[in-house]
């Protein structure tokens, strides 16, 4: 208890907490986009439940990983060498997660571009089930959680600060999940943009796994710029629909006697 009071009285701890909360929220955007796209493919009565389970799993995974910080730190130590480059367990997890994101996003894009061809190739029983959705969410939760915890460990040494930041960030994800999912479902072009984001994130994870550091600021700046352009496109389409004249009144048919006189 005394240790917590000392932390609360330290201004540098509050600054680290604020910075870490922002970082955790930003890192959670990737996870939230994936969860929103995946759960929108479920029946409407299961979508909200799947989102809450997925985000709840993310919280428990991150808090659980924080309890094994010493083990997580050792995940960055090389265990094998490929072409003269040391590969750690963290690198392998990031590469596997990136490949999964590439496969999933490419598959979703193919289904969006050619839904009839995708259905014919997959068969009538290939619709996404609730258990399959939760399994895929859990897999990506694990990848993003490990990346998130390693980032947190690099910013502060205080586990209570990391736990508070994780809880706040996941709470923000929980609040934003339903509005984001509804927005994505109501705007098909946003779905394609979000899938493009997932491909970019997957490539970034693979690059990070092979030791090519990609500054996160570049990634999120590109995402924000693309989202801004899409927002302008949506505004332009809305204005165009508002200005376009509706169909004119249907002409009344002439009476038979009047037509005969004419």
Automatic annotation (TrEMBL):
Pfam families: TerC (PF03741). One of its GO terms (cellular component) is membrane. Keywords: Membrane, Transmembrane, Transmembrane helix. InterPro entries: Integral_membrane_TerC. It is a multi-pass membrane protein. It is found in: Membrane. Residues 239-262 are annotated as: Disordered. The chain crosses the membrane at residues 12-34, 55-75, 87-105, 126-146, 158-177, 189-211, 217-236. Belongs to the TerC family. This is TerC family protein. It comes from Methylobacterium planeticum. The lineage of its organism: Bacteria, Pseudomonadati, Pseudomonadota, Alphaproteobacteria, Hyphomicrobiales.
């Amino acid at each position: 208890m005394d240790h917590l009071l000392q932390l609360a009285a330290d201004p540098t701890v509050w600054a680290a907490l604020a910075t870490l909360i922002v970082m955790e929220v930003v890192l959670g955007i990737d996870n939230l986009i994936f969860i929103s796209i995946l759960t929108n493919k479920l029946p409407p009565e299961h979508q909200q439940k799947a989102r809450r389970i997925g985000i709840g799993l993310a919280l428990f995974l991150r808090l659980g990983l924080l309890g094994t910080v010493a083990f997580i730190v050792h995940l960055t130590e090389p265990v094998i060498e490929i072409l003269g480059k040391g590969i750690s367990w963290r690198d392998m997890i990031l590469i596997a997660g990136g490949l999964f994101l590439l496969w999933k996003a490419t598959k979703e894009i193919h289904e969006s571009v050619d839904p009839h061809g995708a259905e014919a190739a997959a068969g009538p029983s290939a619709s996404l089930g609730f258990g399959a959705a939760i399994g895929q969410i859990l897999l990506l939760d694990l990848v993003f959680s490990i990346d998130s915890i390693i980032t947190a460990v690099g910013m502060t040494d205080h586990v209570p600060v990391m736990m508070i930041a994780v809880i706040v960030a996941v709470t923000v994800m929980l609040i934003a999940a339903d509005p984001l999912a509804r927005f994505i479902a109501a705007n098909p072009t946003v779905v394609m943009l979000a899938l493009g984001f997932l491909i970019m994130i997957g490539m970034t994870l693979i690059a990070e796994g092979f030791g090519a550091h990609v500054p996160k600021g570049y990634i999120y700046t590109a995402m924000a710029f693309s989202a801004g352009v899409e927002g302008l496109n949506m505004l332009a389409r809305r204005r165009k629909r508002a200005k376009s004249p509706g169909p004119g009144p249907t002409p009344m048919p002439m009476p038979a006697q009047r037509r005969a006189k004419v």
